[in-house]
């Protein structure tokens, strides 16, 4: 029986993701076929998840890649709410928070239980303040969720740097983790800019709005693609 060549399959998936990436960027830049663009984006996110599944057959650490797979699966679910349904934003962001917490556990090879306890304290504090403030001013839940997500993301950017400095992962994998998290951060900076401009009218804002619209996925998909490969054993 012929052995399955997982490396070749991963290579074809990578090529497919890159082709779809270039197509939907072209569509976004020209503001055409929005639904097609969304579908291509979601397909790419699913393919990134499949790449991580196939990478398991040549992973540098099985437990590590399982955490990566959980994070990417949560990302697929979150993007289904935020991108495809374009609704239930609170649920989508909450799932993204879980994805980021999963990545934190992945990056903290020691004292993983401490990471969970720390997040419970920090996120619990944010929502406690949200409840208190809400007695006086009505604040949308999405604000508290967005702040919580931001804390998780910035924490992971910092932890990814520690992964590289402390040589927790193989060198190339460490570089990929840092690159993936920084691209993730750049994506979400543009998400914030996009939503601020969308929610509040600024004069002459159309150029910034269009740039942030394209830049979100310009950074986001590469971040997911790089992260999906960050558990692979290259040598």
Can you give keywords for this protein?
235 residues; mainly alpha; 8 helices
Helix content: over 70%
Q: How many strands? A: 0
Query: What's the overall average pLDDT, rounded?
Result: 92
Q: What is the number of independent domains?
A: 1
Q: What is the terminal-to-terminal distance?
A: 26 Å
Stretches where pLDDT is under 50 for at least 5 consecutive residues are none
Give me the strand/helix succession.
HHHHHHHH
As a percent range, the share of strand residues is under 5%
The gross shape turns out to be globular
Query: Structural class, please?
Result: mainly alpha
Q: What is the alpha-carbon Rg in Å?
A: 19 Å
Number of helices: 8
Biggest β-sheet description: none
Could you explain the architecture of this structure?
- With 235 residues, the protein is mainly alpha-helical.
- It is built from eight helices and no strands.
- It has helices at 6-29, 34-55, 62-85, 89-107, 112-134, 141-165, 171-199, 206-229.
- The mean pLDDT is 92.
Gist of the model:
The chain is mainly α. It is built from 8 helices and no strands. The two termini are 26 Å apart.
Topology:
Blueprint: H1 6-29, H2 34-55, H3 62-85, H4 89-107, H5 112-134, H6 141-165, H7 171-199, H8 206-229
Helix pairs in contact: 1-2, 1-8, 2-3, 2-8, 3-4, 4-5, 4-6, 5-6, 6-7, 7-8
């Amino acid at each position: 029986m012929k052995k399955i060549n997982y490396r070749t399959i991963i290579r074809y998936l990578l090529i497919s993701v890159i082709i779809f990436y270039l197509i939907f960027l072209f569509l976004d830049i020209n503001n055409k076929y929005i639904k097609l663009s969304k579908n291509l984006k979601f397909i790419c996110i699913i393919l990134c998840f499949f790449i991580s599944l196939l990478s398991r057959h040549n992973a540098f650490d099985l437990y590590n890649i399982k955490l990566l797979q959980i994070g990417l699966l949560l990302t697929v679910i979150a993007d289904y709410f935020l991108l495809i349904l374009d609704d239930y934003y609170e649920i989508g962001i909450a799932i993204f928070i879980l994805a980021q917490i999963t990545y934190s556990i992945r990056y903290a090879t020691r004292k993983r239980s401490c990471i969970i306890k720390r997040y419970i304290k920090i996120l619990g504090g944010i929502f406690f303040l949200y409840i208190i403030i809400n007695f006086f001013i009505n604040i949308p839940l999405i604000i508290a969720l967005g702040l919580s997500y931001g804390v998780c993301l910035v924490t992971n950017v910092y932890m990814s740097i520690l992964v590289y400095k402390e040589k927790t992962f193989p060198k190339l994998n460490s570089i990929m983790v840092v690159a993936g998290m920084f691209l993730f951060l750049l994506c979400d900076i543009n998400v914030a800019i996009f939503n601020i401009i969308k929610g509040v009218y600024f004069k002459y804002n159309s150029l910034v709005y269009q740039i942030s619209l394209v830049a979100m996925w310009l950074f986001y998909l590469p971040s997911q693609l790089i992260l999906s490969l960050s558990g692979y054993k290259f040598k």
